[in-house]
Each structure stands twice: as structure tokens, then as C-alpha cells.
Amino acid sequence: MNFDNLAIGVDTEEIDRFKSYSDRNDPFVKKVFTEKEADYCYSKKIFYQHLAARFCAKEALIKAVSSLLGKQYFYLDFEILNYDSGEPYVVFCNEELKQLKVKISLSHSKINATASVAVFLGE
After folding, report:
1. What is the largest CA-CA distance in the chain?
2. Staple 77 to which of 7, 27, 52, 94, CB 3.0 to 4.6 Å?
3. Which residue in 75, 58, 67, 69 sits closest to 97, CA to CA?
4. pTM: predicted TM-score of the whole model, two decimal places
5. Is-contact 95 73, C-beta < 8 A?
6. How many domains does the chain have?
7. 11 in any annotated domain
8. Distance (Å, whole) CA 110 – CA 119
9. Residue pair 117/103 in contact by the 8 Å Cβ criterion
């Protein structure tokens, strides 16, 4: 079995770390999250829980995609959105990544957020 065209990534973060980003114009927020992501997170009562989960997703994606393609990628190369059902999905903001297929899962407790991704290159 050959897994050369498959990569996985996982990340976990403490949610409280994101409480301090109450201003959506914070340089960290602008560096990591797209406008749509910020709109979604800051529309929630516990905004920092959603920031943490999306940050985890982006970290997991960076690990998987950079490993798979042998090149470094960054936070704004990906956008984590949700279908109406609540299921998260990935939008690639970097044209060269649109060839990839991704499955993503986000979760959180009161203390931690986590994300896992599987990235596939090919048909």
C-alpha cells in the first residue's frame, strides 16, 4: 500500500490562550484568520473557543500540506468555514492548493480545542 499522496495533521491548543484576542483587529488575528473566519468566530458568545478550534485546524493543515507537498504554507493559505449543518470544510486561498482534497474534524472541551485533517493529492 502506498501513502505517498496522503498526509495527516493534528493540533491541540488550550482555549484560554485565545481569550486575549477580543479585538478582531489584533495583529495576531489578522495574521491567522480571514475576514469570514473572524466574522464567524466573533459572532459567537464564546468567540475564543472558535478561534482556538480554527487555529488548530490551520496548524494541522500546515503540518499535513507542507509535509505532502514539501513546501511551507501559512495560515492565510486556508480558510475554515462551516456548512449550514455545522460541518467544517476547507477553502484553499492559495491557487496551487486547489488540487488537494481534505477531510477535517474540529472538537473542543471546556479546556482544549483540537483538529485533525487528512489531505489527499490526486483524483
Report:
1. 48
2. 94
3. 69
4. 0.94
5. no
6. 1
7. yes
8. 28
9. yes
pLDDT confidence of residue 77: 96
All cell numbers assigned to 39? 466574522
Whether 14 is in a domain gets the answer yes
In a domain, residue 1? The reply is: no
pLDDT reported for residue 24: 93
Please give the C-alpha separations between residue 89 and each of 14, 21, 28, 98, 115, in angstroms, as whole numbers.
22, 23, 22, 13, 12
pLDDT digits (tens, 9 = 90+) for 40-92: 999 999 999 999 999 999 999 999 999 999 999 999 999 999 999 999 999 99
Beta strands in the chain, from DSSP E residues, in sequence order: 6-14, 78-82, 88-92, 100-108, 112-121
Residues counted in the chain = 123
CATH number at residue 45: 3.90.470.20
- The residues, any chain, with a CB within 8 Å of residue 47's CB and separated by 6 or more, are 22, 41
What are the residue ranges of helices labelled H in 44-107? 47-69
